[in-house]
UniProtKB/TrEMBL annotation, chain A:
Signal peptide: none annotated. Its cofactor is pyridoxal 5'-phosphate. GO terms for biological process: ceramide biosynthetic process; sphingosine biosynthetic process. It catalyses: L-serine + hexadecanoyl-CoA + H(+) = 3-oxosphinganine + CO2 + CoA. Its EC number is 2.3.1.50. Belongs to the class-II pyridoxal-phosphate-dependent aminotransferase family. This is serine C-palmitoyltransferase. It comes from Cynara cardunculus var. scolymus (Globe artichoke). It is a single-pass membrane protein. It holds the Pfam family Aminotran_1_2.
Amino acid sequence: MELSNNITTTFMNYMKNASDWVTFAYDAPFARAVLFGVPIGGHLFVEGLLLVVILFLLSQKSYKPPKRPLTNKEIDELCDEWVPESLIPPIKEEMEKEAPVLESCITSSAAGPHTTINGIDVVNFASANYLGLMGHEKLLESCISALEKYGVGSCGPRGFYGTIDVHLDCEARIARFLGTPDSILYSYGLSTMFSAIPAFCKKGDIVIVDEGVHWGIQNGLYLSRSTIVYFKHNNMESLRSTLEKVTQDNKRAKKLRRYIVVESVYQNSGQIAPLDEIIRLKEKYRFRVLLDESNSFGVLGKSGRGLTEHYNVPIDKVDIVTAAMGHALASEGGFCTGSNRVVDHQRLSSSGYVFSASLPPYLASAAITAIDVIEENPQLLTKLRDNVKTLCTGLLGIQGLEIASDILSPIVFLILKKSTGSLKNDLQLLQDIADRLTQKLKVLQVLKEHSVFVAPSKRSTLDKCNLPVGIRLFVSAAHTESDLQEAYESLKSVAASILTGQN
Amino acid sequence: MITVPYLTALTTYFSYGLLFAFGQLRDFFRRFIDWWKAGNLQGYAPICLGLEDFYIRRLYLRIQDCFGRPISSPPDAWFDVVERISYDNNKTLKRTTKTSRCLNLGSYNYLGFAAADEYCTPRVIECLKKYSASTCSTRVEGGTTALHCELEDVVANFVRKPAALVTGMGYVTNSAILPVLIAKGGLIISDSLNHNSIVNGARGSGATIRVFQHNTPSHLEKVLRELIADGQPRTHRPWKKIIVVVEGIYSMEGELCELPEIVSICKKYKAYVYLDEAHSIGAIGKTGRGVCELLGVDTADVDVMMGTFTKSFGSCGGYIAGSKELIQYLKYTCPAHIYATSISPPSAEQILSAIKVILGEDGSNRGAQKLAQIRENSNYFRSELQKMGFEVLGDNDSPVMPIMLYNPAKIPAFSRECLKQKVAVVTVAFPATPLLLARARICISAAHSREDMVKALTVISNVGDLVGIKYFPAESKMPQVEEARAKVE
């Protein structure tokens, strides 16, 4: 108690001393000067001093390192010492493998169901000749008459006298076959998708894409600079949740265009997209659908009209349908179809259409004849379906491989059974692909002795798809029972010999 | 470089301004009318918003009948143009069955292989019967036939490079090769007037893109020096590699590229040269081997040579030629090789036969005749047009000659008047050319005879007087705007 009293008293003394000092300073004679009628207290001097100091500091230049642009001599030195990488990386031995060269044999044209490789007669399962129209007489006839009339090339882009009447006829025929108002022809199958997508999807739009689409679509999406969201391969639950998330995040997106891009039969896995589910989801969330029907046009559906007929969905519910004609139609090029607005827009904004020469006229007339043949002969479709079923049942129980594709798809896709575990890491993926390809190549060579030609699916280094590689068998309606039997028996024996112990 | 006379520039700007104003007025009324009618979009965003397709709706549709004219015969020197009529003021055009026989000054038919040829067509039909119209599969799987291998060897020989790779379409060749050769961290320097396929390929690769002034090697050197010294943007690390992309003949200017200077600059600064010979292969040079032969550049100095077969060979498809390692690498990685259907066998046969004719291996001298004819034709036509007072661009020996129109109203006037007098020309406007510099582009072919050209000249002269595009006084000497370059034969 006494201590605290002492402390308080001392403190009070100090305070009193300090305030005495301050009062003294304020009451100093100069501090009482009156200037212009304003009494100046002593505090004004302190403030004035502070102001002067501030002004002095402001007027100092801040330290900036001096700018020294490079002199010519320095630029010369830099240019001399820069060493570029070589244009291509060094050639590894897997790059030296040449593709097998096909020659035609007596019964069919090269790349038909039977062909000759290096003098050996083989059954060809590597050409996507689904309906066996390659080498059909009607197609050859129409091609010959077109060649005699028009020559080979069309010598110009569509805008500058490259539009020949067969092109317009072909577009009208395709539109009539599918039941859409109009269609547009492209001169190459690969360029169809990667020109159509940038014409519609611009920067800022949202596109939801299956992760297993092929390179043409991936490149188109990259060129379009839109926001891309992937969903799990052929997984409708994943699609629904992605759509939900995207709609939630972008509530203000009334002006944003939104697209879903899927393929009908995926080239990388042989699965078929469930179109009725997709249409239901699209209508609920107001997205537009872009469907790539390259492998299902002329194959699925009762009369070959594709995935929409297969699922009984009216075709005007799908906004944009594209397809390459190099598969079932045994021609080349591609087309895109949809409403009038969709097709007309592409005639001026699609770069692969405007800036490139048009399709050679004989290929367009081949496409018209092919569609006529498909319409007149629906039994080709049933034959193809039976062939696929026979092959799949024959391949059941094969050792080390399993069928990853749908039973209706014309591509029978076989993947390694043990691959389901090791595809998680990206780093390991590349290593595994290299290993598996060497394994497959051995399979391929051995198969040649049994005279069946198949090809493993190859991936470019630019491809971003993560689905497993596998052996692809393109079944054709021109394959006979004996061909198929040979195929699955040879595959079974070869797989048993190479992939033993990996079941 | 083109210098526009002041009065012309003013009137052109005024015309575009007027068209723009009218377009906006119409849009305003359209918005009004659409407000009353219920939209049928039902919650979907429209395909084109606002001003995105303003140019198409309000300017292009007015003159739509000048573009995309269908023909019903092969695109030879004379062809049949199908007439179209419109019932709704040019918004949609319907085909009629009437055709009119016109002189073809628009198709890319430099050596006259467009129609059925006496040597090529029988061979093509043979090949069709043997290999059918398409191989239905990619090159790496089942699409390589003996024909494709032979074609690649012949093309490599023709272009004087060790090896070549052939794809089914020229556009895809550029778009798919550039991403393979260069990726993020590299630099692409391209000419400012390069073709859309090169621009697409460059964008798709992910590398940094810089542009140098059209055909100006000094500016290229300046840009190269700056960029090498600076390094990559923001990190300033050195570039991984630099590719300079130029074209042999620029299709909208008709000019030849200044290849010797550009190649020497690239050698000095260790950049790679990519030459796109879409229009020049087969059409220029003493034996048709393109711009390298004409300008005396060694093909070993150009790292990647690319070209198309659509123009001079009358077929379709594109090729890349380079060293053996380059082609091997491309065969392993290029998406156009791995994913796309191989080139159609009859087209391949046409290319083979056309090359044989050009080199004289078919036993006749038709090839040499065609090459001489096209050179003579182009020089004659160009000098006559200049004598008449037109403003013609392009160098000597180049078969592409643009005639400047400038004013947007003269585009349909020129095109329609010429068609009435049975001459079919191609007119090009924005966006393929800059806004002010609309032009009519003439492509001369070896199939044009002297009478054809005289007729064309009289018609163009008449129409030119009518439309008012003779910007220079007739019979004057060469104006300064065109750099006359004497080519050493």
